[in-house]
Amino acid sequence: MSAFPGKCFYCGKELKGRGVKRHFRTHLRDLKEGEDAFLILAKSHPFWMVIAVRKDLLLEDLDQFLRDVWVECCDHLSMFEIEGEPYPRYESSIYGDRSMKVRLSEVLRPDLTFRYEYDFGTTTEIDLYVFGEVKAPLRRDGISIIGQNDLPALLCDMCGKRPAKYINEYNGRLICDECYNERMKYEVLPLVNSPRAGVCGYEGSRVDPGEYRVRV
Length: 216
Description:
By secondary structure, the chain is mostly beta strands.
C-alpha cells in the first residue's frame, strides 16, 4: 500500500502519497515569514505528517507533540535515535547522560533522517526527515502541522463493501458498522488517522490536531 493521499495546509493543494516529499521541498523557498523552524516530515507508512517546529524547542517537546497527536495511549516510554545515538524520554544509565532535554538546534540539521519509537512492547516506529530550515507561521506550542494525510475510506474486511469504522486489535481486520456485533466490543478499536490505530487500546488523538494546523 502506498502512502495515503492528503493535503498541504499551507497552499491548499491535494497531494498523492508519492508526491509528498517533492511538494514540501518546494515550500523551503516559500516559507519566509514567521519564526525560525525546522520543516520535518514524519512518516509511519502509510501515514504521514509534515510539521514546522521552532528550532529552540527541546526533543521532549517534539516527543510530547507526537504523543498528543499521533500515539499516546498508556504513557509508554519513548526514544529518539539521531545519528546512531539514543535520546530517551527519561535519563537512564543504559544510555549514559543523554535524554530528550536537548534543543533541536543542537541535534538536527537539514537532510537529516532520524527515528522515533513509542512503546517498547508494542512499538510504533516513526521515521523523521528534516527538509531544511524555514521561517514559518507557528501555532500551538511552537509547532504547526503544515500537511497531513487523510484517512481514506478503507473497505471492511468482512463484507468487502462498506467503509470500515473499526479495527481488530488482535488481527488488524477492518470492520464496518453493519458487520460489527457486541461480541467484538473487547477486541475492536476505532479506526483513526494514526499509525497507532488498532494498537494497545489507542482510540485517537488526545488533542484536536486542528489546533496545530497552520492557517495562512
